[in-house]
Amino acid sequence: MSVFVTRATPADAAELLGIHLAANRRLTADFGQGPWSTEGTERGVLFEMRRATVYIAREGGTAVGTFALSTRKPWAIDKSYFGPSRRPLYLTAMAVQPARQRTGVGRLCVEEARRFAREWPADSIRLDAWDAPCGAGGFYEKCGFHEVGRASYRLVPLIYFESAL
């Protein structure tokens, strides 16, 4: 069965929240409590939709992944670590249902994020990942992002990544 990525709508909020909760709970079960242990709300998902363009990946009728793209810099990112870019987009809120992790859904989401970013048009994608055993830094490197720096925000160690388009 094929996975398709489309722009999410407010009607998708409950499914988007379900993906995030499942992913966060899996990380907590595997790695213990941390910044990944947050419990969001549908209201929080709807707020994100006002600040970013949120996408949903579906396999058949089932929501299996999500991510957001925005021109707005996330609070935890320090722009000084990144190369020059006139039109960067920030990739945030990426999550994949635990049962679908390591099956290509995440890689497809990144490929689609690049496609959407080129159409935006943007000239780079920036993101951060937790600098911890549960962090997705290795995944982003395999997807062609390169590390540009490490920093801590509110005592949370982060790795910054960037990909030119």
Give a short synopsis of this structure.
The protein has 165 residues and is of the alpha+beta class.
Oligomeric form = single chain
Structural class: alpha+beta
Strand order of the largest sheet: 1-2-3-4-5-7-6
What's the story with the biggest beta sheet? 7 strands, mixed
Question: DSSP helix count?
Answer: 4
Show unreliable segments.
none
Give me the strand/helix succession: EHHEEEHEHEE
At the third CATH level, what is the topology name? Aminopeptidase
Q: Write down the overall geometry.
A: globular
Mean pLDDT: 97
What is the annotated CATH architecture? Answer: 3-Layer(aba) Sandwich
Radius of gyration of CA atoms, rounded to a whole number:
15 Å
Query: What helical percentage do the residues reach?
Result: 25-40%
Terminus-to-terminus distance: 29 Å
Total number of beta strands: 7
In percent terms, what proportion of residues is strand? 25-35%
Question: What does this molecule look like?
Answer:
By secondary structure, the protein is of the alpha+beta class. It has a single domain, classed as Aminopeptidase, CATH 3.40.630. It is built from four helices and seven strands, in the order βααβββαβαββ. Strands 1-2-3-4-5-7-6 form a seven-stranded mixed beta sheet. A hairpin with a 2-residue loop joins β2 and β3. The longest helix has 19 residues. The radius of gyration is 15 Å and the shape is globular. The two termini are 29 Å apart. The mean pLDDT is 97.
